[in-house]
Structures are given as structure tokens and as C-alpha cells.
Amino acid sequence: MVGFGKIFKILLGCLSLLMVGVHAEIVNKSEVGSLPRELTFEVWLNQQSTRSIAGILQNVMPHGAFSASPSKQNPDYFYHWVRDSGLVIDKIRSLYTEAQDEEKQAFYKNILDKFIEFSRRLQLTENLSGGLGEPKFHIDGSPYNLSWGRPQHDGPALRAISLIKLAHHELAKKDGLQWVKSNLYDGKLPSNTLIKVDLEFISDHWRQSSFDLWEEIKGDHFYTRLVQRRALLDGAELADILGDLGAAFWYRLQARQLEIALQKHWNAKIATIVPTLHTTRDDRYKRAGLDSAVILAVLHAHHYSDTFFTLSDEKVLSTLRNIRKGFEKLYPINNHQNMAPAIGRYPEDSYDGYSSDQQGNPWTLAICAFAEFHYRLASEFMQKGVVQIGSIALPFFQELDTADLIHIKAGGHYQKNSREFDAIIRALRKTGDAYLERLKYHVPEDLSLAEQINKDKGYMQGAPDLAWSYLSFLTANEQRNILIGTKY
Ligand code: NOJ
Ligand code: NOJ
């Protein structure tokens, strides 16, 4: 007798064959020349930017909730995640501050106002994490009461980092002070305003372990800690401006202590910043110690005048290089030449966008983050006016794609306008472009960006129209434009 399980498996097999068929058809369309990969790079960048802003706005609800993706099943991502929305709101902020006409300004300001109101309501909503560590809510703002990897402590930090930038923008205006005090930072204890409540939460809870940004593992995370530190330092600066001096002192004190904790993530034996310490999960999970979350941390916590774990830090460069190596041979689609490798979350990942007992795939947002990193690194070197190469980062530089670099060595000190400096900057830009070329190759006709890219066939899979995927493309392209603007 054929058991139900077997029939189910056969059905599933047919279904996935069918799916592969459908996708193969999409991939083959390239031959008739209608796919983005047929466009020139610059034309694609422009079209993808417009499409990505639309993709973000599609996830913005009129009452201030942001869905992670419009997908309501397989997978169900139609929730307001504190992390995703805390990142995405920064894009709305820059669209607002850069808008030329008043109508556009009012449009984006309305989204910001609604988001602030909605997020404040969430801060007051009872939930199973018992505080601000609740990772996601229903779109109507009610708590999600099923089991989940909770608490997660990065969300309030990301939200604060984004909104502190908005506060500074508004403070520069005539009536800005009053607006900031009543909507974002009242300087009171207990506070009734979004940013101040987030900062108080971070400064009181950063020592507690929490789930990571991938919602899978409890422990102390480099990502969570680095963005917490950034939020506290930016928060202290705002607190100073608003006369909340005691708080500014307290936030800075916590940030300094976070630094001591963060240094411990460096593992000299494998020359890598490890993503998580003090976890109880068995060590087959992430045994390589490699996780793109570390690169995301450096990007999301970046501040132009801060050198702590900044992009050019040799520990960061070595980590990035090792992560890249970890993915290079992992995915069959990486066998294509002339393109940067597709990057995923971590090599041992078993979440394929639908279920967790599969082999993981490359992620759109990780590929874009690698592109963004190289552009930003080039800009950082330009700003510093020198590239110094230590032994830890030497492999990173040696593997850059340029023949001009064969002579670089540890201890090298290359000033702006030297042959080596120029070669490094050019190689970084080329590498950034190679990651975006990689993405371009996998983008479907309608330019929609999903969470993942199938590691064998190259089509998009997992949550469709993921707001964070669109965001990651936009921030990468923005950094590319900044670098190009410096005329290199
Ligand atoms: C959904 C999470 O968001 C994802 O990060 C995770 O890998 C899977 N669930 C499996 O736990
Ligand atoms: C899964 C990711 O692992 C997590 O970081 C994200 O917040 C959710 N998906 C929603 O996009």
C-alpha cells in the first residue's frame, strides 16, 4: 500500500517540477532579450531605483504599519517587523528631506508621522516579550501571540538611529524644537516619546541575551550590539542638544561598555569577527563562524567620524573576505565567471524562504550589502586620503581584481594619488559593480526583488517584493553615486 506520506511527497515533487518549469521559462526569456540583464548597467540602475522606491511604498500602510512583504502565505511575511521597518523608515526620511516640491515633502512627512504614531502605539502594546524586544506585530498593531524567536533587541536601535536623523533635520527648522520634543524626544522619565523610550530600553537591556536578526539563535550578537552602540551614541548627541545632559552621559557610558563586549567578537584564530557569543545552540550550527550579519552591522552602524569597527578596520576587511570565500564555492550559480559571487546569510543556512529543512540560498540584501560595502570603503579611503595595509587585511587587498596590486604588502602605506591608492579605489568600485551585476543577472522582467535567489537556477524565491531587498539595492546605489560624485 502506498502511504499518504509517499503520495504527498510525489505530489510535492510534481509541484516543484512545475515550479522549476515556470521559473526556467522566466530565466530563458533572456534569450529573447527582455530581461534586465540585457540592459546596460546604468540604464538598469536607473530603472531598478524607480522600481525599488515603488516596491518600498507598496509595503507602506496608510495607518503607519510597514509590511515586510505583501506575501500572506508561503511565506507569510505580512507583518510589521520592528527591524525591517526601522531600516526602511530611513529611506522614507531621505526621500522626505531630499524632496524638492512641497507636495512630495508632505506625502513623505505624512508617512513619517503615521509611522511614529504607530510605533509609539506598539511600544505600549503588551506582548509576549514583555517589552520593546517584541520582533513583529500584526499589521493592525495587535500583538503576535504564537511562538517566535523572541525577544530580539536590534529593532528599537535601528528605529532610533533612523529617527534621530529625522530629529536633526526638523530641529534645523523654525518650529522644529517643539515638534521634536512632543513627537520624538521629550527628555522626560518616564518618557512618552518614541526615541527616548527606545534609548532607555537599549541602555537598560543591552546586557540581556536576545535572538539574532535572523530570528534563530539566542545569545549575544555582534549585529545587535553594534547597532545598539550606534543608537546610544547618536542618542547622546541628540540628548545634549535638547538639554537632557544626564541621559547623554548615561547613554555614552553604556556605549563604552558595549565596546568592551563587542571587542570580544574578534576571533584571531580564524581572523574573523564572529556573529554570536554565549549561545547554547550546538556548534554544528554556524560552525564556520561566518555570517553576513557582521557586514550588515558595520553598514547599519556606520558613522563617518567614528573609527570603531568601521569599514576599513582590518578585522572587518578580513571578515568580509572570509565570508566571501565561504560562499564562493557553495552555490552552483557562482560558477559563472565575470561576476561577483552571490552571497547568503551564512553558509550553513537551512532556510530556503519557505521552510527550514532545506539548503539555504543567496539573499538579495546580502549581495547588495557587499556591493554597498565596497563603494563605501572606497569613499572612506578617499576621505582618509590613505590606505594602510596591515597583515590581517592583506588577503583582502591581494584578492582585489587588479594587476596593479601585485606589489602591495603588509605595512604598506599608500597615499592619495599614488599608483597603488588609485588602483585600490578603482578595484573597489569595480568589485561593487560586480556585485550589482550579479544581482542584475537574476532580476526578473518586472524588476521585482524577492528575499532570496535560487542557488541552482538563479530565479528569485522566498518572500516576494521584500521591502528590505528594495532598500538594500537603493542604499547600495546611493553609495555608488556618492563615490562616482567624488570623480574617481
Ligand atoms: C523565519 C525567519 O524569519 C527566518 O530568519 C528563519 O530562518 C526561519 N523562520 C526559520 O527559523
Ligand atoms: C527573515 C529575516 O531573517 C529577518 O531578518 C527579517 O526580519 C524577516 N525575515 C522579515 O523580513
Task: Produce the secondary structure layout.
Layout (H helix, E strand, L loop, with lengths): L3 H25 L12 H17 L22 E2 H17 L3 H22 L12 E2 L17 H17 L4 H8 L10 H12 L4 E2 L6 E4 H20 L3 H19 L2 E2 L4 E2 L2 E2 L15 H8 L13 H15 L35 H21 L1 E3 L5 H5 L14 E3 L3 H24 L9 E2 L6 E2 L5 H19 L3
Antiparallel strand pairs: 1-2, 3-4, 4-7, 5-6, 8-9, 10-11
Helix pairs in contact: 2-15, 3-4, 3-5, 3-15, 5-6, 5-7, 5-8, 7-8, 8-9, 8-10, 12-14, 12-15, 14-15
Overview of this protein structure:
The chain folds into 2 domains: 1-60 and 311-488, Glycosyltransferase (Alpha/alpha barrel); 69-264, Glycosyltransferase, CATH 1.50.10.10. A hairpin with a 4-residue loop joins strand 5 (266-267) and strand 6. It is mostly helical and 488 residues long. The longest helix has 25 residues, at 4-28. Helix 12 packs antiparallel against helix 14. It is 51% helix and 5% strand. The chain has a 3-stranded antiparallel β-sheet. The chain has helices at 4-28, 41-57, 82-98, 102-123, 155-171, 176-183, 194-205, 222-241, 245-263, 293-300, 314-328, 364-384, 394-398, 419-442, 467-485; strands at residues 80-81, 136-137, 210-211, 218-221, 266-267, 272-273, 276-277, 386-388, 413-415, 452-453, 460-461. One 1-deoxynojirimycin is lined by residues 214-216, 351, 356.
